[in-house]
Design a protein that fits this description.
Elements lengths: L1 H22 L6 E6 L9 E9 L15 E7 L5 E7 L3 E6 L7 E6 L8 H11 L1
Antiparallel strand pairs: 1-2, 2-5, 3-4, 3-6, 4-5
Length: about 130
């Protein structure tokens, strides 16, 4: 009898833990590139803003200022780098696009992205001592 009740209690706790894991919100520090026009014509310049968001939501007003962005550039369909120039405090503009096709916008934040793991925390504590 005691073994049966322990089995049910254990199964109940597993179900509760799995439910808690499935119901938890996902947190992230995502860097977003928001284009002014996602289909510019070949003679137009591409204009974008770099933003940050949490909870996998599209950013509203958390735009990165120029001091938080290391560089922004575009890759053309023929694999050439197209530099961008800052426009104001939060926007970046490319040179006029030369050809029709798919361009890749790349925004590199200052310091990139990092995550602290248990190993990183232990290494940081060892450096302090």
């Amino acid at each position: 009898m005691f073994e049966t009740s322990c089995k049910y209690v254990r199964m109940f706790l597993v179900v509760v833990m799995l439910s808690a894991v499935c119901a938890a919100s996902g947190y992230a520090h995502d860097t977003w590139v928001i284009m002014q026009n996602y289909m510019p014509k070949p003679s137009e310049a591409a204009v974008l803003k770099v933003a940050n968001a949490h909870l996998f939501a599209i950013p509203g007003e958390e735009f990165h200022t120029r001091d938080k962005v290391e560089k922004v550039f575009f890759l053309s369909p023929d694999d050439k780098n197209i530099p961008s120039t800052p426009q104001g405090e939060i926007a970046y503009q490319s040179d006029a696009l030369k050809a029709q096709g798919t361009y890749l916008a790349v925004a590199v934040p200052v310091n990139g992205f990092f995550s602290k793991t248990r190993k990183d925390i232990i290494a940081a504590k060892a450096k302090r001592h």
